[in-house]
Amino acid sequence: MPEPTIYIVDDDNSVRDSLSLLLNFRGFRTREFASAEDFLADWKSDWRGCLLLDLRMTGMDGLSLQQALNERGAHLPIVFLTGHGDIAQARTALKAGAVDFLEKPIDHEALFQSLAEALRKNTELQEVERRQADLEGRIARLSEREKQVMERVVTGRHNREIAAELEISPRTVEVFKARMMEKMQARSVPELVKLVLEANPD
Amino acid sequence: MDDNAAMRPISWKILLAYCLASLVLDAVSNPQTILPLALAPWTPPIGLSLAFLLLFGLHYAPWLIGVTFLIGLPIYGLPPDWLAALWAATLLMLGLVGLTAWVSHGLRLNPRLENLRDLSWFLVVAVLAAWLDAGVHVFSRSPEAAPDAFAWWADLVNYWVGALIRVLVIAPLVMANTWRDWRKWRPTREMVLQGATIGVALWVIFGLHYTDEFKFFYLLFLPLIWIAMRFGIHGATAALAATHLGLNMILEWQELHAITVVEFQMLMLGLALTGLFLGMTVSVRRATEERLLRREADLNQALRLAAAGEMAQALAHELNQPLSALANYAQASRMMLADLDRHGPLLAETLNKIADEAGRAGQVVHRLREFFRGGTVRMETCAVADLIEEGIAPLRKRAARYGVELNLNLSANLPDLSADRVQIATVLINLVGNALDALRKGQGGERRIDIGADQSDAGMVRICVADNGPGIAPEIQDRLFQPFATSKPEGMGLGLAISRTLVEAHGGTLELKPGRPTRFCFTLPTEAATAKSEIRNPKSPIDHA
């Protein structure tokens, strides 16, 4: 998995170069792109870190790139940079999930804070994703019967009811349930419910 | 006059002014010269009362009657039939109140007399008020005063003429001058001279014994016209008052026959009407001129603000980039200082970059200074292609962003132009910028802007900017080049106005060609043509000072 990186997208060479230099010294890994199109062409879904994005650019502008990334399901948090603040644009950007909206010339402290927050957010997202993938893996290992039993257990049915519904003996239900609990690594029914909810946030 | 005038308290200052003015009028005029009238001293003076009611409100009416009666008492004693006198005064005042209410509320007459409509309606009111005054006074006499109907009518008309003059002289004097800003008023030598001229005219008319008094009456028109032309309605009312006062004093002193007095009064009436209308015409014209000047000043200010505002915005954006980079490099340099041995070469490189960025910021400022350079046109010989490139280069990025194609189509062998680069670039930026905005609004399809240049006729090069956008709404086409005409919600509507002014300063024209696509064309004289006509340093119409 690639290292967390700050992807700088700005069409002004000097601004890009100076930001990169500064952030490198601050200990961040950076990568520069001269346009939103360039970034989008190179982007891979496993990229980690965050995006430092100029709002106004030739061709595709910052907001359009944000939208394109959202459509592709990218989890890179975005810190916007802008020449002069426009409240409407700032609102659009923040509503679409931007971490911050900074005006040039940039206040470096604010920039470092925002970037730190963006990276933390990215790590959190990665963590959630990882955990979700793990849970999905556990569920995938369940047999058809075990899955049926789990679905009924989490909706609060008793063994006897489940047995009647699935037309098997209550004893067999108990066996399936024990095996399912073991595979899901759940020690109690409430914990199982929590895990299932985490796996399917919707 | 506002509608709740009745709610306002009575001001003793106004009553005192009325009181003093009545006393002065009583001292200088003597209506009994013409007709022996029993009631005159106890009825409110008609012109003064009308002016006060119009200016200060109807609620003064009873007070004016009271004040007049009180003044009359010590001077003339109680009238023989005091009840009839009071009745006549009340009748007169009621009539005046009715007239005042009609013109103030019905006609919305401005009692400060500020235009010809006010003056004309005031004239109607004056005629009616004079009839009222004449009626009240002539009716209230004893029957023996006029033995037959003819004598009665003659008296009525005679009195009416006198009353009308009094109204026309006194009321406008009070109405036009009460609310003036007297702090700025200073008597000048010219005013003294004008007053003296009135005196001389009166002396020529009455003082030279070998002439008939009426022969030279027209001389009185000369100072009046002079004063009215110079000082408008304010001067005219003062001159009329002075003339009227002089005439009255002379008539009394010479003890002229009533019939002569009436003839003089007719002449005086002509004088009063001439003076008032001439003075008002002059005042109105002067006010209009002042308003136009003020509006022009406002417009210049607005143009300057708009140019400055747009410039400031562009400047902020242009300066922001190098400033951002500078701040970043500087911050990084500070970090490099911590470990100079390792980062020495990098620090040197970064400092070079800092110098470059500072230079870039300096260029922006330099360009700004270029734009605001003293407000003069600096003509130089330029190739058409270069001029156009300078004008559209700043917009290429925007065009690319909107997905608009910029096509250049220049005729071969175009002659060089004599033009101010910055100003012509401004015109092109405006035209192409407008075209871009139009295309941005448009839906789908190919979006293109064609910029062409050809030699329209001898000595002129024509540059056209055409876009295939939705076109210009017919309702704003007529006033397209006027300031503040705009179809953009955030626009000031100054771009085309400024552009046309700039092109015209070069001796060219800028116009919208009819039909589609939307096409703006402007012409500029060629270098050769300019050299021939020797246009030297034409003044820029826009003052950037």
Description:
The complex is a heterodimer of chains A (202) and B (545). Chain A is of the alpha/beta class and 202 residues long. Chain A folds into 2 domains: 5-131, Rossmann fold; 141-199, Winged helix-like DNA-binding domain superfamily/Winged helix DNA-binding domain (Arc Repressor Mutant, subunit A), CATH 1.10.10. Helix content of chain A is 57%, strand content 12%. Chain A has helices at 13-25, 36-42, 62-71, 87-95, 108-140, 144-154, 159-166, 170-183, 189-199, and strands at 5-9, 30-33, 49-54, 78-82, 100-103. In chain A, strands 2-1-3-4-5 form a 5-stranded parallel β-sheet, sandwiched between helices. In chain A, helix 5 crosses helix 9, helix 6 crosses helix 8 (170-183) and helix 7 (159-166) crosses helix 8. The model of chain A has no long low-confidence stretch (mean pLDDT 87). Chain B has 545 residues and is of the alpha+beta class. Chain B has 16 helices and 7 strands. Chain B has helices at 12-28, 46-56, 61-76, 82-106, 116-139, 149-177, 189-207, 221-254, 258-337, 340-371, 384-392, 396-402, 421-441, 474-477, 495-505, 527-533; strands at residues 380-382, 405-410, 417-419, 448-454, 460-467, 510-513, 518-525. In chain B, the strands form 2 sheets. A 5-stranded mixed β-sheet of chain B has the order 2-4-5-7-6. A two-stranded antiparallel ribbon of chain B has the order 1-3. In chain B, strand 4 and strand 5 form a beta hairpin. In chain B, helix 1 (12-28) crosses helix 3, helix 2 (46-56) packs across helix 6 and helix 6 (149-177) runs parallel beside helix 9. The longest helix of chain B has 80 residues, at 258-337. Chain B is elongated. Chain B starts with 11 loop residues before the first helix and ends in a 12-residue tail after the last helix. In chain B, 34% of the residues are buried. The interface between A and B is medium-sized, with 20 and 25 residues.
Short structural summary:
The complex is a heterodimer of chains A (202) and B (545). Chain A is an alpha/beta fold.
